[in-house]
Amino acid sequence: MASLPLVLASDANAAVWRADELAHAPAAVLATGHAALDAQLPGGGWPIGALVEILQAHSGQNEWRLLLPALARARAGPVLLVGPPHMPFVPGLAAQGLACERLLWITAATPASRMWASEQALRCADVAAVLAWLPQARADQLRRLQMAASEHAKLLFVMRPAAAQAESSPAVLRVLVAIQAGSDALRLELLKRRGPPCTQALLMPARMGRLSALLARNQGRAGYAPRPLGNLSDSAAPVEATHHALDSLAGAA
Amino acid sequence: MHWIALQALPDAVVAGDAPDSAPEPFGSAAPAPADATAALGWWALQFTPRVAQVGPAVLLEVSASERLYGGREHMLACVMAPERPVAHVQHAQAATSLVALALLQTGMPPGVVEPDRLPLATLAQAKAHLPTLERIGCRVWGDLRALPRGGVARRFGAPLLDALDQAYGLKPEVYPWLLLPEVFDMPLELSAQVEAAPALLFAARRLLGQLQAWLRARRQGILALELGWQMDARRNTASHGQLLLRTAEPTLDMQHLQRLLGEHLGRITLPAPVLTLRMRSIETAPLPSASTSLLPDELHAGDSLHQLLERLAARLGPEQVLRALPRADHRPEHMQTWRAASAVRAPGNATAGGNTRRPRGTAAGTTPAWAEFYPTWLLATPLRLAVRQDRPLYQGPLTLLVGPQRLEAGWWGKGGPDGHADVALRDYFLARSEQAGLLWIYRERLLASQAADAQQVVGHWYLHGLYG
Fold it and tell me: How many angstroms away from the CA of A206 is the closest CA of chain B?
């Protein structure tokens, strides 16, 4: 009998969440693909079945490089884009792991129809993730989405303008994304998470994979002005022009 | 011979009698069928091929299939199990159909009442002679049977005597057996004129309930159906209207059809009040039998993808629900086409069907190496950039990082009226903007015929993609 209180105490310890540590992940998470970000997120990844809010000044600017590594690794199933600001470029996305067949583009224009389409998509069993661009969503509408996402255990990312950070939000995780001045690196601020407030911003490498290698190789040439090309009206012009371009490249390197 | 007689009870009667003992047929919100007796008959065909519809009752002759169901009691339990199209059903059983019908009408429990003591009012053929029979003291079947046969035949006609013989099993009973129609086609007269199209959904639900009973009996799923309505001819407008509803996969899910119907009806304005509805099945297909899993993990709740896409397309319009088709082309704007998802076959079917439009580079698993340098967003129409001091501007001056990558394509196309519309002569650059991040821009190169003078061969700068 003497050991019983001890057992209870250890159970209780496990069940108590201390405000200065990250919350235990009760639900599944999906690794973000960025180690520095994983370390700061409860459970070590994007929460599945919860609303994640991504705030940035210009929509369409940073979400793909933040989300693509995770989406490529998410369970197979369609990814619904509700009201994206531009046309998704399939070859570029496929090269980073999001296959063409998985993409579905809902071009709903009005805020109400975007909200409705997002909620319907969350209720579909086959859908793997929903990416919704909702610049004008109200907190109660977001709450509906959060409920639907948690009920059906879906990945849900809502892209909103940076100005929305002052509004209250039912999101489990709010990330403010900006471009670091002077470079192309991402600067993340976790405005809200289940855990202690994250005071310092996270810096993430600008680009992934071969693109970053290409950019690094051309680092020294940044700022060169394109040389005016020669007269192309004669038939040999394209070949010659290519030589010009290569020459300038070699000269700069 | 063993007969089971079934009769659907109107919902109003049941609600007044026993509000608690209401079994839910086909899940919670299944609509009641338009013609309950016919639906009950179609459903009863699963137990025996010998089903007949007599007035408001349905008769089942089950002696041949009793053994399959494990005995008479067990069979009756199967028949009375709650999975049927009509929620509230009264039943009776007896050795002959007329006794079963009579028991059904008296509502007395079977076995308690001998046929001799059944009231004559329960015999259909005796109904015309009831006052006369009453006056000569015949109240029950036994009284009539005790009378001399010759006199009864002369006074009341042979049919009454025949019916009595059939009721006692002395003569065979023959019915026109119920056949399942090949095509579902059912009219429904509305109890009141309907002015607004969305209100038609309420009546259409009952037709859907009927359709479900028919589909279940045929073991089919619906692919296309037509809802037609007839309008008041006194208005000088069109007298008919119809709505064609299609689904991508054969379905038995009336909830889904009901939501689709609701979306479509919501966009229709009726020129005149509607008097009757009519539902017709256009196309059906055998239902693929899904194997059920023992593991609870694999059961995930929710609609399937095609249901979602159909619902989205029904409300937003098919042109707003898009799926990408990859294409083999070097021009970025031609590398993909976004088509209505309803027009593009699902990816699972596309591979099975041998879709040959897939370009070589984008086959599953192998993306070309240079595709990693592509942006993630593409502008539908390239945005022309202003130039200051030979540097393109987009939210401030741009810094060119990588390039040029030359593209010369499209010369084989017919193009537009000027003959050059599809030709792409471009130098692509990766550029960086302090505000907008990494951009994909190109500088146009002009054809000799397009250039204003021989010296000007370099065209404008355009923004074509964004690295989001």
Answer: 10
Q: Do B302 and A85 touch (CB under 8 A)?
A: no
Is some CB atom of chain A closer than 8 A to the CB atom of B121? Answer: no
Secondary-structure class of domain A23-211 per CATH: alpha beta
Q: Give the DSSP letter of residue B129.
A: G
Report the SS3 class of residue A167.
Answer: coil
DSSP state of B186: E
* Domain residue spans of chain A: 23-211
H or E, element range at B51: strand B51-54
d(CA B198, CA B449): 60
Q: Which of B161, B151, B213 is nearest to B186 (CA)?
A: B213
Q: How confident is the model at residue B119, as a pLDDT?
A: 86
Cβ contact B364–A215 (<8 Å): no
Of A65, A116, A228, the CB nearest to B458: A228
Give the model confidence (pLDDT) of B418-443 as tens digits: 545 577 888 888 888 888 888 899 98
pLDDT above 80 (res A122): yes
Tokens standing for residue A22: 């990250």
Per the CB < 8 Å rule, is B438 touching A207?
yes
Instruction: Check CB contact of B374 with chain A, cutoff 8 Å.
Output: yes
What is the pLDDT, as a whole number, of residue B30?
Answer: 55
The model scores a pTM over 0.80: no
| Residue A108 banded pLDDT, cuts 50, 70, 90 | confident
DSSP class per residue in B259-307 = HHHHHHHTT---SS-EEEEEEEEEEEEEPP-PPPPSSGGG---SB-HHH
Residues in chain B with CB shorter than 8 Å from the CB of A132 are: none
Alpha-carbon distance B228 to nearest alpha carbon in chain A (angstroms) = 28
For helices B305-316 and A111-122, angle between their N-to-C axes, nearest 10 degrees: 170
